[in-house]
Amino acid sequence: MAFLDHVLRVPAYGWKDEQGNLIKPSAGQIFNEFFSRLNVFKDRRNWLPFFSWLKVLCFVPFFLLFLFKFMSPWMLFAAFTYSMVIMGTHGTVWHHRYCTHGAYKFRNGFWRFFTQNLTINVIPEEIYVISHHVHHAKSDQPGDPYNAQAGFLYCFLADVTHQPIATNLSEADYNRVTLLMRHTGVKANTYAQYLRYGSYVNPGRAILSWILNWGFWFGVFYVAGGAALACTIFGAAGFWAVGVRTFNYEGHAKGKDKQREGIDHNVNDKSINQIWPGLVAGEWHNNHHLFPKSARSGFKPHQVDMAWYYIKMMNILGAVSTYKDSKKQFYKQYYLPYLASKAEANVKPTINPAMLEVLPSN
């Protein structure tokens, strides 16, 4: 745990107080931290959080053009499908199940690159992956970079305030970061470059990848449907880029105890299974916290898992060589014992309290 205790850059207000309790910063403290870490003039090592939000700002003109010029029933349908289903599913397939948890393996680098760039580039892998390992190790505890108990802003702005890696890691600890990232195909900075830029990824490579990805997809959508479709899809991607930052706050029940018996079987944190994220992105979050390395998290028949369908399809086509599926383990370890316990409770004889009054005392 020592490595995960300090791999992320600690916010100015800290993770916990002297008694070990979660620090819940005020909105002012969070905003101060947010804008301080976006200041590339103060410290060039702030470049990656700045870059992440620069992309979001670049989506704004496309979204406004969609909203006020190209809006139509068909464009609205395209925007909804791309933002909610395609972007959401890709985030689960790529960032969550592959980059972070290694739930499956690609046959070769081509299919990894194909899947990585299957949608418009939004989230830097480095910001997501390292912090998500910490999230699972410290879920809903002090040090969790998006602890829902600290409020909405604490989670919504976490990609800047809590998720970047620390800028003063030792060479040994930086090498551990590279081990967590190596399979993603994102090329690492040398340790000397890391000390200069404060990041795993090199700024030049990140910017080039962004330009090529956006240029390719804008061209594809422009050829397919002109400026209307291209602006609509890019606006939809921007909508998702903002909306996805609310997920962990909602997925951990806004920091409250909202788990339901027979639905949420992991009781070690506040994660819950939600219908909407499950249907559109395969993100059955409580199931995922039970088996984070599973390529499937929609275990029950009604739990549609679009991300799993993509991974399974790629396996059938030969693009994915191996995967881990924990469905059988879920049923054996959690769901069947739950059903058995409910059945046993229903057949146990009950005693009418009134009958106790006529029973003999001896």
From TrEMBL:
Localization of this protein: Membrane
An annotated GO BP: fatty acid biosynthetic process
Keyword Membrane: yes
Gene Ontology CC: membrane
Membrane topology designation: Multi-pass membrane protein
InterPro entries on file: Acyl-CoA_DS, FA_desaturase_dom
Keywords, comma-separated and alphabetical: Fatty acid biosynthesis, Fatty acid metabolism, Iron, Lipid biosynthesis, Lipid metabolism, Membrane, Oxidoreductase, Transmembrane, Transmembrane helix
GO molecular function: oxidoreductase activity, acting on paired donors, with oxidation of a pair of donors resulting in the reduction of molecular oxygen to two molecules of water
Main location group: membrane
Domain Fatty acid desaturase: 73-298
Domain of life assignment: Bacteria
Regions that span the bilayer: 47-68, 74-94, 214-242
PANTHER family assigned to the protein according to its UniProt record, in alphabetical order: ACYL-COA DESATURASE, DESATURASE 1, ISOFORM A-RELATED
Family designation: Belongs to the fatty acid desaturase type 2 family.
Record protein name field: Acyl-CoA desaturase
